[in-house]
Automatic annotation (TrEMBL), chain A:
Protein's UniProt name: Branched-chain amino acid ABC transporter permease
Keywords in alphabetical order: Cell membrane, Membrane, Transmembrane, Transmembrane helix
Domain of life: Bacteria
Pfam families assigned: BPD_transp_2 (PF02653)
From TrEMBL, chain B:
SMART domains with a match to the protein in the record: AAA (SM00382)
GO molecular function, one term: ATP binding
Organism expressing this protein natively: Micromonospora antibiotica
SUPFAM superfamilies: P-loop containing nucleoside triphosphate hydrolases
Domain ABC transporter per the UniProt entry, residue ranges: 29-257
Descriptive protein name: ATP-binding cassette domain-containing protein
Residue ranges, compositional bias (Basic and acidic residues): 7-20
Pfam families, alphabetized: ABC_tran
Keyword Endoplasmic reticulum: no
Keywords: Amino-acid transport, ATP-binding, Nucleotide-binding, Transport
Record family assignment: Belongs to the ABC transporter superfamily.
Length: 342, 266
């Protein structure tokens, strides 16, 4: 587990909050120093960042590599869109509703998925991702078909407050939601760290000690579904339109890629990596049209070979390497015989 | 263990006293008509098996006799294809491993298993998770019992085989089982560890029922008061430990007669 979130009783405790305050500080700086393009671009990356947190949670805590989190993501997104189009534009209400629908969707799918392991889960979740796109395209009354839903009203933070239409306020809002949801995820994972590590490490032993392994995994999957649903709400808030392509295989693959690059055992790392992945796809590849998938593929291969454990493992690997280099450079003590030589 | 060839055996009824079986029905673990096969290969076909609180019941037999399968069926890690299992008068045939463990059926594994991501102490904590507010014995006491106090903070994955087996036993005991299933607990232990194992098993509470699957006959002789001999998945012989060990056919087939050294103890 990479981050812990106690209340800041002292400076030592406050230091633990710094990693969580950094994204907020960066977003504030970006909003203050930049024009509308960059805040809008970064804000639109954050739904995928939160989806990557959900994928990394299922992958790390439950040990189930999955592409299927786009289903609760889609459920949360369409719930938010429909609520907004029906005139319910309060963001907190939309976020809670999306989280609930996402949890229910993930809970239903989890009944099938958590009974399997490794590649079987991956294949089943691939089917879930494809079925999500197909369902979204065919369920016209909800999704608007392949044309999608557009003209979705902007959210309002509180009753009577103006709608969040500006790029800069939206960046701050999206960053706050992403950081809060990630921090809440980490807090829950930290509290159940021992149990989840044990279950993931040895299911037979855990079951023989009375732990209902499948139930635990289902709870993780369902909880991660709530996060994915929240990410779906954020997608509507930042984009204000949605098509079935936004909740398809491409999105699922990007989220899983972010989890791999960020470090499958670190949901915050996956969020950072999601921003990096989208940065490569949408910004770095802008001058090289049509080659974004090639760049992403290269990034994936580089991450697998050069960053085992992902970005979050880099500091530990660096420390180990520095210690190793220092140890090899340290001069060996002179042999006892040479010291006796006059 | 070297064995002589034996033709497929017929069902031999258990010689257990009906009163003991009734006591097991009410307060212990009883299996009736257990059958399990892998494709067409029958691995277990047992008409009855009963153990009451306080019993020390060893199950012996050659490799492939169905001993471990019997433990898997009783623990719930494998579902019986036919048959009924009752525990304290309640049918548990369809119950899973975790439910049975919480109900009081604990086990160790033939290949000792640990939680690779946890420390030794945390492994024991996980074993007693459901009793953590009212433990019989605290995790550190259990580690002291199995001689692993000095390894409490070490990662469990770094333990050698013998220590893993001891840790497996401590984890099982942390669950405060009423029926303890031991799958070859002496396998791969050094003489020192074996002595400690016998000490531990000898001090288990009187109300605990123990089913012991073991090839090491010193352990069986020291612990068991009733022995069932399995062959080709069926009961070949059963009876009080002294009778079984004195039986010439069993001695010839499974105890290796007198030339097998420690395996035969009159």
């Amino acid at each position: 587990m990479t981050a812990r979130l106690p209340l800041p009783h002292s400076w030592d405790d406050l230091r633990r909050w710094v990693p969580w305050l950094l994204p907020l500080g960066a977003a504030t700086t970006l909003a203050a120093a930049s024009d509308g393009y960059w805040p809008a671009t970064v804000a639109r990356m954050l739904p995928l960042a939160l989806l990557a947190v959900s994928v990394a949670t299922v992958t790390s805590a439950a040990g189930l590599p999955t592409l299927g989190q786009v289903a609760p993501y889609a459920a949360g997104a369409y719930t938010t869109a429909r609520l907004a189009l029906a005139g319910h534009t309060l963001a907190p209400v939309q976020l809670v509703a999306a989280a609930l629908v996402g949890a229910v969707t993930a809970g239903l799918l989890g009944m099938l998925l958590v009974r399997h392991r490794t590649t079987v889960v991956l294949m089943l979740s691939l089917a879930v991702a494809e079925l999500t796109t197909i369902t979204a395209a065919r369920w016209r009354t909800v999704s608007g078909g392949t044309d999608g839903l557009a003209g979705i009203p902007a959210p309002r933070l509180l009753p009577g407050t103006p709608a969040l239409t500006g790029d800069r306020p939206m960046l701050l809002y999206a960053t706050a939601v992403t950081v809060a949801a990630t921090a809440a995820t980490m807090q829950v994972l930290y509290r159940h760290h021992l149990l989840l590590t044990a279950v993931r490490g040895n299911e037979s032993r855990a079951a023989a000690s009375g732990h209902p392994v499948t139930t635990y995994l289902w709870l993780v999957h369902t909880g991660a579904g709530a996060i994915a649903g929240t990410a779906g709400a954020l997608l509507i808030h930042t984009h204000r339109w949605i098509t079935p392509a936004d909740v398809g295989f491409d999105t699922a693959a990007l989220a899983l890629l972010a989890a791999v690059i960020g470090g499958a055992h670190s949901p915050p790392g996956a969020a950072v990596a999601a921003v990096l992945v989208l940065g490569v796809r949408d910004v770095a590849a802008a001058d090289w049209p049509g080659h974004a998938p090639l760049l992403l593929g290269a990034l994936f291969v580089a991450a697998v070979y050069l960053l085992p454990g992902g970005l979050t493992a880099v500091p530990t690997r660096l420390r180990t390497e520095i210690r190793r280099v220092r140890a090899t450079r340290r001069p060996e003590p002179l042999p006892a015989v040479s010291r006796r030589t006059p | 263990m070297t064995t002589q060839h034996v033709d497929a055996v017929d069902h031999i009824p258990s010689r257990r006293d009906p009163a003991d079986i009734q006591r097991a029905h009410d307060t212990g673990l009883v299996a009736t008509g257990l059958y399990h096969a892998y494709q067409r290969l029958t691995v277990l076909d047992l008409d009855s098996f009963a153990i009451a609180p306080g019993d020390r019941h060893a199950v012996i037999g050659p490799n492939g006799a169905g001993k471990s399968t019997l433990l898997h069926l009783l623990a719930g890690s494998t579902r019986a294809q036919t048959g009924t299992i009752t525990y304290q008068g309640q049918t548990i045939t369809r119950r899973g491993t975790a439910w049975r463990a919480r109900a009081g059926i604990g086990r160790t594994f033939q290949h000792p298993t640990v939680y690779p991501g946890l420390t030794v102490l945390d492994c024991v904590r996980m074993g007693g998770w459901h009793h953590r507010h009212h433990p019989d014995r605290k995790p550190l006491e259990l580690l002291e019992l199995v001689g692993l106090t000095n390894r409490a903070d070490d990662p469990a994955a770094t333990l050698p085989h013998g220590h893993r087996r001891m840790l497996d036993l401590a984890v099982a005991l942390a669950g405060q089982p009423r029926v303890l299933l031991l799958d070859e607990p002496a396998g791969g232990l050094t003489d020192t560890d074996l002595t400690r194992l016998l000490d531990i098993l000898g001090t288990l509470p009187g109300w605990m029922a123990v089913i012991l699957v073991e090839h090491h006959m010193d352990v069986v002789a020291a612990l068991a008061d009733w022995i069932t001999v399995l062959h080709h998945g069926r009961r070949y012989f059963d009876g009080p430990a002294d009778h079984v060990r004195a039986d010439p056919t069993v001695r010839a087939l499974y105890l290796g007669t007198t030339q097998a050294g420690h395996a035969a103890r009159p």
